Amino acid sequence: MTDRFTATVPPSAAVAAPIPQRLPVLALLALAMTSFIAILTETLPAGLLPQIAQGLGISEVMTGQLVTVYAIGSILTAIPLTALTSGWRRRNVLLLAIVGFLIFNTVTALSPHYVITLVSRFLAGMAAGLAWGLMAGYARRMVSVEQQGRAMAIAMIGTPLALSLGVPLGTLMGGVLGWRSIFGIMSGLAVVLIAWVLLAVPDYPGQKNGERLSIRQVFMTPGVRPILAVIVAWMLAHNILYTYIAPFLAPSGLRPRVDLVLLVYGVGSLAGIWLISQLIDRWLRALVLGCIAAFAVVVVALGLAMDAPAVIYISMAIWGITFGGAGTLLQTASADAAGDGMDVAQAMVATIWNVAIAGGGLAGGMLLDGYGAASFPWAMLALLLVALAIAWRARRYSFKPGRRSGGVVAGH
Prior knowledge:
Order of helices and strands: HHHHHHHHHHHHHHHHHEE
Largest sheet: 2 strands, antiparallel
Strand order of the largest sheet: 1-2
Strand content: under 5%
Number of strands: 2
Helix content: over 70%
Distance between the termini: 8 Å
Number of helices: 17
Radius of gyration: 21 Å
Structural class: mainly alpha
């Protein structure tokens, strides 16, 4: 018996530009830089909390809301903005998002008032939501079906680079140059990226009226909802621990070394992205199931030996490997399932991802206050088992077995 499906490319994209035989690495890296700027713009205030609070004359709690409103901007606008711009030329939409980062990071760097800064952060979150709804589909359109997994891995590498290297470096530089200078540097990166996109990234037309799918149609497409459910459970589990990693490390004595622990995690994430890029087009289903299952084993080890430094370091490395390529796996699966609605589906993925980030912080805080950090692994295990069960059952439309090749996934 053979399972087969067609990895649909929007008709409007098919005539836009010839598909190169070699990976368009320079163009894909421009998308990676976009994701790098988006993540760094979102997370930098957390690393620069004391400096921003002092500079604006506000409390650190109020400063923390600069991260919150950015996430809210993405959550509220990613889906409607993606649907609204689906008929626009793709490069124009990408440039619009990057110009948004340029303008609103500049406002943040210059703003003397908290309210102005808060508004600029919300609008920057809107730019990020637009970018996240665009990038996965853009990367896929540049290459043949056989190369889509590798292309996605390259385009998404900006996220782990921003988290593992960009945020620590930005925090360090902020202490030397001042937090306003760092946001100014971010604006400078956006200017460079605009030129990079204009020179290296191919353009594609948007979808014609008859080709566009409504938000409801995309949501009801077979395979989309199970993928979103897996994202909720998997990302909630991830963010419970990632958000409150410092208190979790206290029993092992590694709390003062949280930077080193996260560096191990970050290196593992980069290794995970490389591994996924090599295997995703042959083993997407197995990789999704394997990454969730391996993470479940890791949280059991952490639950049983959270006071052992060696276990912590090994677990962090494995956690990073299993999570580094998660975005690539889930976005590839959602784009395959959604077909012509893949841009809207990617906006849904970005929205659910941000909801899970906020939910993980909320759930982790409640667990920490009520039961202590020792409760994290067991709550995470329950969520991961739910994610694993959903992914296991969703083999027909969501996580198909077999090779992604020539538009067909064959064999099981």
